[in-house]
Amino acid sequence: MRVPARKLLDTTTPRGKHVLSRLKREIVVWLATTNPNGRPLVVPVWFLFDGGTFLIYSVPGQKVRNIGRNPLVALQLNSNPEGGDVVRVAGKAQLLKRQPPAYKVPAYIRKYRSLIKSYGWTPESFSADYRIPIRVRPTKFQG
Questions:
Q1: Taking Cα atoms as reference points, which of 28, 65, 50 lies closest to residue 137?
Q2: Which helix (H) or strand (E) holds 46?
Q3: What radius of gyration do the chain's Cα atoms show?
Q4: Which candidate, 83, 92, 129, 141, has a CA 20 to 30 Å from the CA of 7?
Q5: Closest of 54, 52, 53, 56 to residue 43, by C-alpha
């Protein structure tokens, strides 16, 4: 049985409210996957947290291959300069087959439009490069 992320993250507490606020406003989350030999790969990714799951778009590459072999992942937001305010999320990733491209997800484009433009992409060209949609369902929030 899946436990909804809303139940894993108690947003009635000050800490839960703070974590939710960060998940909605942060630009980058660090995604950790492991290769077949158990070696970790930790990379920054853009994401959209909808209150229950994380939506990430990726170029084809090692992290996608790692998720295909082992869907257990970890996500972590940047800490504050002193190393505090840590937010870690354990989860299970799924490579999506029927997810619209990023440019057809209004909330994702609202969040990243200026960054997409600053890198010389249009929403459509970004979506052509970052064409692998990944959904991460949290199993545990820490920090």
A1: 50
A2: strand 40-46
A3: 15
A4: 83
A5: 56
Domains within the chain, CATH numbers bracketed:
5-100+131-142 (2.30.110.10)
Could you tell me which residues come within 8 angstroms of residue 92 by beta carbon, excluding any fewer than 6 positions away? Answer: 71, 72, 73, 136, 137, 139
Task: Name the one residue in this structure whose structure tokens are 């290769």.
Answer: 35
What pTM, to 2 d.p., does this model score?
A: 0.92
Burial pattern 23-32, b for ≥16 Cβ within 10 A else e, equals: beeeeebebb
Q: Classify strands 54-58 and 48-49 as parallel, antiparallel or unpaired.
A: antiparallel
The token pair at 118 is: 């600053």
Amino acid of residue 37: N
pLDDT digits (tens, 9 = 90+) for 61-102: 999 999 999 999 999 999 888 898 899 999 999 999 999 999
